[in-house]
Fold each of these.
Amino acid sequence: MIVYGRLPFAQPTTHGRLLAIVNPNTIIDFPPVANPGIYKALRRSLVRDFRDRASIDELLEISYGI
C-alpha cells in the first residue's frame, strides 16, 4: 500500500478480496516503480506458490537503495 497507494488485491469488499487472493487466475498488477529493489521484492513476495516465493533471506539480500 505504501508503494502503490492500494492493496495488491484491491476489491470493494472483504469477501471480494478473499476471493481474489485464492483465485489463481487473479492477475496482480505491478506497475513500474522508481526503485527496482522494491519492485523485485513485491513481485517475489506475492508469488502464489509458496515453494517459489522469496525467503526472508532472499528479501534481505535485495538492494533497496534506501
Amino acid sequence: MNAERTVRRPDPPAVRWVGVAAISGAMFLLLTRQSAFRGWEAGLAALLNGIVGAPTKWTRGSDVFYVGIGTNKVFALQLVTGCSTALLIIPMLLLAGVYVHFGRVRLVHMMIGLLLSCAAMLTVNMIRLVVVGVYTVHSGRSGFELAHTIIGSLIVLAGGAATLLLFSRWISRASTVAADAPPIRARMKEGAQE
C-alpha cells in the first residue's frame, strides 16, 4: 500500500508567526500559572476519584485533594510540578512551535493535533491520579507507594509514549513537505528564486 500523500502549501509567514505566538503564549501560561493549573487538575482528579468510589474532598484553587473521606484512612494528595500534566504538555508545545515556525505543518492541523494530544495526556494523567487515589484508600501508605511509583509511572510512560507517537503520526500525515522533497535549504532557495 503505497498511497501518495497530498502535499499542502505552507501557511503564509504572518499566519505562522501568529501560531508561534499562540503556542508560546500557552507555554508561558503553563509555566507562570503552574499552581492554578495544578489546582484545576486536583479538582478534576478529586471529582474522578469520587466517581470511582474513593470519597474525596477538594477546596477550589488548591492543589491538594483528600481521599478516603468518611473512612479511617484519609490521605492528602498534593499535585506538585512533577505530577502535573503541564510537564508533559510543554515539550509538545515546544515541538509544535518549531514545526509551525518552519512551515512543516499547517497551523490548523497543528492546533487540532495539539488539542487531541493535550486531551489524551490529561486523560492519561487523570487515570494515574485515580489509580493512586483508589490504591491509597484501599491499602493506605503502601498502596500509595505502589500506585505512585510503579503503577502510575507505567501508566504515564505508556500513555505518554502512545500520545507522542500519535502526535508525531498526525504531524507527518499533515506535513506540508512531500516525501521525496529535497532538504529544506534547497526548498528555501527555490522559493526565493520564484
